Amino acid sequence: MATLLVLCRFLHFSVVLLIFGACAFRLWLLGAAEQPALDRALLRINRGLAWTGLASGIAWLLLITASMAGSWDAALQPGTVQLVLGKTFFGQVWAWHLLLNLLLVVALIKPWPALRLPLAALLLATLAPVGHGAMLDGLSGQLLIFNQVVHLMCVGAWLGGLMLLVLILRQPHGPAWEPVLKRFSSVGYGLVAGLLASGLINVRVLTGQLWPTPLFNGFALILLIKVLLVLGMLALALLNRLRIERCHQRAGALRASVMLEWLLGVAAVAAVSLLGTLPPMIMAH
Fold first, then answer.
1. pLDDT tens digit sequence for 17-51
2. How far apart are CA 108 and CA 63, in angstroms?
3. Which long-range contacts (CB under 8 A, 24 or more apart) does 254-262 make?
4. What's the domain count of the chain?
5. Residues in the chain, pLDDT under 50
6. 221 in helix, strand or coil?
């Protein structure tokens, strides 16, 4: 059950992060100008991601229900699921989360483009109280959840923005690459700063240390892997920024580099999905 929960968390976090980032960066990178082929591809992908998010969100609820009740059968009993939704903090947050996911699916099917980014942002924000974000009570707990929202927004914007960038670089007759890459890079510095600052705050609050110890064990090891993956993304981003001039002359290398950066980001989300199921080291002492 634990393995299934990690896989479900990974899938759900990934799709919600990607939808938010792609919606957020579409206007920033390309402005209001229409890009019919790109917009059709992006809409098709976002619809698939939103449906996947709804299915994985329901699966997550059923897994949590089975885990709390100690029985797989309980996950299929409406009364037990209703009890989890109404009487637990996770369930109360998740009821709103699933509703937002359903509304986002509708907004992507209907011609309601103005609602897509706000719904994606709210959907992402309701992931913040799930997991370690709900460990503290009172004002400290609220500040921790707010910090987690900032962290998720930065991660989602970077990861979903990279997905959009991959789509742009694959368009045979799309927009000019150089101004798009410069816009992405200019925002990227702020995203990295926000990601690092909010991540360090999370670690300090959850573990009581600047960095959890022992370094190569449990929570600390997975956290180290996540950090190394993010540093790999940052290195590729800096390399692309330094080589941005005449980027069309190295189109293949640029596409491969951006794709690798995106895949490293997806791997970092996988590490986070496992991290969210592990107790911080301070709790293990």
1. 999 999 988 877 777 667 778 888 999 999 999 99
2. 27
3. 254/169, 254/177, 255/166, 255/169, 255/170, 258/162, 258/165, 258/166, 258/169, 259/166, 260/236, 261/162, 261/232, 261/233, 261/236, 261/237, 262/159, 262/162, 262/163, 262/165, 262/166
4. 1
5. 282-285
6. helix
Give the tens place of pLDDT for each residue, 143-185: 888 888 998 999 898 889 889 888 888 877 666 777 778 888 8
For residues 145 and 119, the answer to whether their CB atoms sit within 8 Å is no
Q: Average pLDDT, whole number, for the chain?
A: 83
CA pair distance 264, 262, nearest whole angstrom = 5
Q: What are phi and psi of 209, to 5 degrees?
A: -135, 160
Question: What is the span of the domain harbouring residue 49?
Answer: 2-284
How many other β-carbons are positioned within 10 Å of the β-carbon of residue 9? Answer: 24
How many other CB atoms sit within 10 Å of the CB of residue 71? Answer: 13
pTM confidence score: 0.86
Question: How far apart, in whole angstroms, are the C-alpha atoms of residue 122 and residue 145?
Answer: 13
At 223 the pLDDT is 80
CA–CA separation, 195 and 13 (whole Å): 16
Say which DSSP state 216 is in: T
Contact 18, 161 (CB under 8 A): no
